[in-house]
Amino acid sequence: MKKVSIGGGQGFWGDSPDAAIHMVRKGDIQYIGFDYLAELTLSIMAKQQLKDPTKGFAPDFVDHFLKVVGKECRDKGIRITTNAGGMNITGCVEQIRQCVAAQGMSGYKIGYVLGDSIKDRIPQLLKEGWTFPNLDNDSSFLDIQDKIYNCNAYIGHEGIEECLEEGADVVVTGRAADSALFLAPIAHELHWKDDDWDRLARGIMAGHLLECGGQGAGGNYMYDWRSVPRMDELGFPIADVTDETLEITKAPDCGGIICEQSCKEQFLYEVLDPANYITPDVTVDISKATIQQVGDNRVRVGNIHGKPRPDTLKLCIGYHKGWKTVSMLSFAWPDAYEKAKYCGEVIMKKMKRLGMKADDVHISYIGLNSLHLGVADMSQTAIDNLNECVLRIAVFSEDKKECAKIIPEISPLQLNGPPGASFFGGRAHVQEVMALWPTIIPRDAIRIEPHILEVK
Q1: Which of 264, 279, 310 is the last residue of a domain?
Q2: How far is CA 413 from CA 269, 298, 386, 403, 427, in A?
């Protein structure tokens, strides 16, 4: 039975390239996929591209991976899929072209898929009656229409697979769904049909187990992080897929762990309804799935089923929401929390006198409740035992000037407030707030365009 082996090489923009490079050199794989994108990432890339049209993609893919082992990938027949194209797919393609040409890889085929970005089509879609409803609330899209940075649909595997069928050595996309980067090579190699829902579902879950890189192999491991060997050399997961089976493993001679518990954590990650996990390619049912250890660092996943894909696609719209500033002051024992709390009250009194008109002010105490918020242990015992506490004040406003008012009031409190304060990191800066407008779009409103560029 034919087997496809594909590795997960990247969990996010900024992830370490070490595991991917090790996988190419030591692993037995045919493909490797790189996921760089998140909702905020696209907005950052869009903003970069506005300042410099040559930017707007993830240069790490070329600089930290392709320049290092791109030649080895080609020599070993390892083909690559990635959404590093972000908001500037053709810019990414050009950087790849220059890289492989410099390494003498003539005949190298770069596939790329356009069509996920539809910002320029918003006016026409509005005329056609599409309202871009917010999935989280009842806000009107018209309120943000002139503040949009990016508008990207989560596309599926089809365009990527078409490029692979044309012989692409690497395929670059924009906002392809994470798991589609992995489904495409599997479906291509095993010749799966687009309505073979059970097999497509298995391929999607293979991708889901790989798409977060190290998180699927002992990184961010809540069950027993202390048991993860050689975390300084963490390996990333590899999926071995056939027509009937899915197994997760990793390359030899690296750290990390592939076990039932690590796979279960990643398996359920971001899955809202296990019986109806919606992706662009298939609706997945993992409500009765099985996860079983079948060898050293090898887990078999079974009983995954699929249903027809949805008629709509998720649409990620990033827009300018306003401004924020975040300031911090640290306090030492004794009475660290009491002093920090009192200092926060002092600052708020000053802001009232200055007439600051903030839309939102959030005060928390790092070391006590900044992460756990309302469920933090606020008992007197917990408070008395604090060695240190950091006052954190975050101010949001649609008016940039209002955010700036608090900045000069923080550092003076080293000497003008409770004892034991220290100021660090320099003065805060006003920063732009980019927000997400989650919505959906009819599938037939998206026009997917696969292309091939052969390096001469």
Answers
A1: 310
A2: 43, 56, 21, 18, 13
Tokens 């027809």 sit on residue: 308
pLDDT at residue 273, rounded to an integer: 96
Residue with tokens 């089976």: 245
CA dist., res. 114 & res. 182, Å (int): 18
Kindly report, residue by residue over 400-445, the tens digit of the pLDDT. 999 999 999 999 999 999 998 998 888 999 999 999 999 999 999 9
Last residue in a domain, options 282, 310, 338: 310
Which residues sit opposite 5 in a β-bridge?
Answer: 240
**Rounded (to 5) percent helix, strand, coil in the chain:** 35, 25, 40
**For residues 453 and 93, is the Cβ–Cβ distance under 8 A?**
yes
What is the average pLDDT across 161-187? 98
Looking at the fold, whether 424 and 438 belong to one and the same domain comes out as yes
357 and 253 fall within a common domain? no
Helices within 129-196 (DSSP H only)? 158-165, 180-190
237 and 331 housed in the same domain: no
Residue 256 phi/psi, 5-degree rounding, is 95, 180
- Cα distance between residue 50 and residue 58, in whole Å: 15
What pLDDT, on a 0 to 100 scale, did the predictor assign at position 407?
94
Residues 180 and 72 in one domain: yes
CA distance 113 to 451: 6
Residue (of 311, 318, 320, 266) closest to 291 by Cα position: 266
What is the C-alpha to C-alpha distance for residues 62 and 180, in angstroms, rounded to an integer? Answer: 21
| DSSP per position, 85-143 | TTT-HHHHHHHHHHHHHHTT-TT-EEEEEE-SB-GGGHHHHHHTT-----SSS---GGG
When divided into structural domains, the chain yields a total of 2
What's the Rg (C-alpha) of the chain?
Answer: 25
| Cα–Cα distance, 304 to 202 (Å, whole number) | 6
Same domain for 133 and 193, yes or no, is: no
Asked if residue 415 lies in contact with residue 377, where contact means CB atoms within 8 angstroms, the answer is no
Report the alpha-carbon distance of residue 445 to residue 127 in Å, rounded.
13
Inter-residue contact 130 to 121 (CB < 8 Å): no
Range of the domain at 412: 117-153+311-445
Distances (CA, A) of 255 to 12, 221, 236, 237, 261: 20, 13, 9, 11, 16
The answer to whether residue 452 sits within a structural domain is no
